[in-house]
C-alpha cells in the first residue's frame, strides 16, 4: 500500500511524494525526502509503515515535528487529511485508495428461438400484407419520370479517363469548350456616375512644448539684446551732446 503526502507550503507546493516504505526526512543529501531549508535538521523525522498504516516519528530535530499544529515527541499515527509539519514546511496526508472487490458476474442464459420453415411463413401471409404490396407497386407506377439531374446522380460521376476523352484542351492544358461569362449589360435609363476621388485633408502638425519654449527664449533674448543696444546708443548720444 502506497501513501502520499502533498506539499502545501514552500517551493514544493502542490508536489506529491509517495511513501511505500520506511523513509526519513532531512536536509542531508542521503535522506529519502530531502528538504532544502536551513530550519530543517540533517535528520529531521521519519515516516514508518506498520501493517500498511502510516506513522511519523521525530528524530530529535532542532525545530520539531508537528501533526495538526501539535508538536510530537513519540511515534504518531497518521490518517487522511492530517497536516504534518517539519519546522515551517507543511504537508497534507493522502490515504491510498482501497481496492474494490468485484463480484463475479452471474451467467446469462440466452434462449434461441426455434427455426420456422419458410413454407409455413408463406402460407400464413395475411391478406392485408398482399394489399399493401399491391398499393406500393401502384404508387411506384404513378411516380413522375426522373429528371436528367436525378439520372446523373444515379449513374454517378464518370471515370477520369472518360472525362479526359470528352474534354478538349489547349497546349497549356486549359479547356477549350468552356465559355467565359460576360458581364451583365447596364439597364436602360440608369446613369452611371463616377465617384469623385476623395480630397486629401491637410492636418497641421501640433507644435511641441519644447519648440514653443525655444521660440519664447529666442524672442526674450532678442528683446533683451534690443534693450541693451538702445541703452548703449542712448548713453553714446548723451555723451556726444553733453
From TrEMBL:
Domain FHA per the UniProt entry, residue ranges: 23-72
Keywords from the named record: Membrane, Transmembrane, Transmembrane helix
Tree of life domain: Bacteria
Signal peptide: none
Presence of keyword Signal: no
Residue stretches spanning the membrane: 222-241
One matching Pfam family: FHA
Keyword S-adenosyl-L-methionine among UniProt keywords: no
Name recorded for this polypeptide: FHA domain-containing protein
Amino acid at each position: 500500500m502506497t501513501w502520499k503526502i502533498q506539499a502545501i507550503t514552500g517551493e514544493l507546493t502542490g508536489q506529491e511524494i509517495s511513501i511505500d516504505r520506511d523513509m526519513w526526512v532531512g536536509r542531508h543529501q542521503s535522506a529519502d525526502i530531502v528538504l532544502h531549508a536551513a530550519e530543517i535538521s540533517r535528520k529531521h523525522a521519519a515516516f514508518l509503515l506498520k501493517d500498511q498504516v502510516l506513522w511519523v516519528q521525530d528524530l530529535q530535530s532542532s525545530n520539531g515535528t508537528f501533526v495538526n499544529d501539535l508538536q510530537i515527541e513519540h511515534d504518531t499515527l497518521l490518517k487522511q487529511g492530517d497536516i504534518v509539519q517539519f519546522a515551517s514546511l507543511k504537508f497534507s496526508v493522502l490515504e491510498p485508495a482501497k481496492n474494490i472487490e468485484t463480484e463475479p458476474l452471474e451467467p446469462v442464459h440466452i434462449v434461441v428461438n426455434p427455426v420456422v420453415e419458410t413454407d409455413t411463413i408463406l402460407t400464413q401471409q395475411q391478406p392485408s400484407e398482399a394489399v399493401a404490396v399491391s398499393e406500393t407497386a401502384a404508387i411506384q407506377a404513378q411516380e413522375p419520370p426522373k429528371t436528367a439531374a436525378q439520372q446523373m446522380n444515379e449513374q454517378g460521376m464518370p471515370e477520369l479517363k472518360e472525362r479526359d476523352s470528352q474534354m478538349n484542351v489547349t497546349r497549356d492544358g486549359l479547356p477549350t469548350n468552356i465559355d467565359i461569362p460576360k458581364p451583365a449589360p447596364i439597364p436602360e435609363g440608369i446613369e452611371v456616375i463616377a465617384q469623385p476621388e476623395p480630397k486629401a485633408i491637410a492636418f497641421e502638425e501640433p507644435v511641441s512644448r519644447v519648440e514653443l519654449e525655444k521660440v519664447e527664449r529666442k524672442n526674450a533674448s532678442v528683446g533683451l539684446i534690443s534693450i541693451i543696444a538702445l541703452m548703449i546708443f542712448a548713453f553714446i548720444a548723451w555723451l556726444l551732446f553733453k
